[in-house]
């Protein structure tokens, strides 16, 4: 599933189409699900010039000389640029390409096309998306914003559920959340409000380390805990059995020994 690191890669790919004018937009009924109707995408984007890119968490933004365009990639969405030289796709992990999984995109005046490939049909396009529903981006997050996102001391939801809550902190998905808890030595089920100052500090450090290290390695699926992400898996740090639970609605792997 694309998380903030993958979307940041898509943003860098999208940088290659900055300056181009949009000739037409295409969206199937899945990609256009947040619009009134699929043709609304073409009507909104036709003739716009792409002037820049940005990102908030997992939401990729194309700035134009008109409204900002939002691209969401769901569970399996991949951004591709098709040129005369062929597809410049950003596939991460094992991926299969099928033309029928192209849900739509943008035709550009320079004969290139920006395409969204999405087997699971959960990717969405948006026109002038509302950023108020998203918390601050996790990349480059300040400590004060991190503390605000975690919330007040007390009880609160499970730590992992809070990390996944995009309205609190934008960009963390299932694999990054597990890797951050693994590196911080924290049980992902711990009520977030019960973390003490030292645990919050460890969590903040692990967040930064995880984003930097996995960004360098090339994706959310390249974390230290990944090799143990299988039934019967053993912790690569101490050899203890890994546990599997559902936390924050997602399948969660954590070490029975060092994550407390
Ligand atoms: Zn361990």
Order of helices and strands: HEHEEEEEEEEHHHHEE
Cα-to-Cα separation, first versus last residue: 27 Å
At the fold tier of CATH, the topology name of the largest domain is N-terminal domain of MutM-like DNA repair proteins
Helix content percent band: 10-25%
Write down how many β-strands occur, each being a DSSP E stretch of 2 or more residues.
11
**The named CATH superfamily of the largest domain:** MutM-like, N-terminal
Number of folding domains?
A: 2
The percent range for strand residues is 15-25%
Corresponding CATH architecture of the largest domain: Alpha-Beta Barrel
Task: Round the Cα radius of gyration to an integer and report it.
Answer: 20 Å
The shape is elongated
Low-confidence stretches: none
User: Strands of the largest sheet, in order across it?
Assistant: 1-7-8-5-6
> How many helix segments?
6
Main sheet attributes: strand count, strand direction, barrel closure: 5 strands, antiparallel
């Amino acid at each position: 599933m694309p998380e903030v690191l993958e979307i940041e890669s898509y943003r860098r790919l999208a940088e290659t189409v900055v300056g181009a004018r949009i000739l037409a937009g295409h969206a199937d009924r899945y990609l256009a699900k947040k619009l009134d109707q699929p043709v609304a995408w073409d009507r909104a984007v036709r003739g716009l010039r792409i002037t820049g890119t940005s990102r908030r968490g997992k939401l990729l933004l194309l700035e134009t000389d008109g409204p900002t365009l939002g691209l969401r990639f769901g569970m399996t969405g991949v951004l591709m640029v098709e040129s005369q030289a062929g597809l410049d796709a950003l596939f991460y992990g094992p991926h299969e390409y099928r033309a029928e999984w192209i849900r739509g995109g943008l035709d550009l005046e320079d004969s290139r096309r920006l395409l969204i490939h999405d087997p699971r049909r959960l990717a969405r396009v948006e026109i002038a998306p509302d950023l108020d529903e998203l918390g601050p981006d996790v990349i480059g997050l300040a400590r004060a914003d991190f503390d605000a996102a975690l919330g007040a001391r007390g009880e609160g939801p499970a730590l992992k559920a809070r990390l996944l809550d995009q309205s609190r902190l934008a960009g963390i998905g299932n694999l990054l959340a597990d890797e951050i808890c693994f590196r911080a030595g924290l049980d992902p089920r711990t009520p977030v409000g019960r973390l003490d100052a030292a645990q919050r500090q460890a969590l903040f450090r692990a967040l930064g380390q995880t984003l930097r290290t996995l960004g360098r390695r090339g994706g959310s699926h390249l974390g230290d805990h990944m090799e143990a992400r299988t039934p019967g898996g053993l912790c690569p740090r101490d050899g203890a059995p890994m546990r599997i639970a559902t936390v924050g609605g997602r399948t969660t792997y954590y070490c029975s020994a060092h994550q407390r």
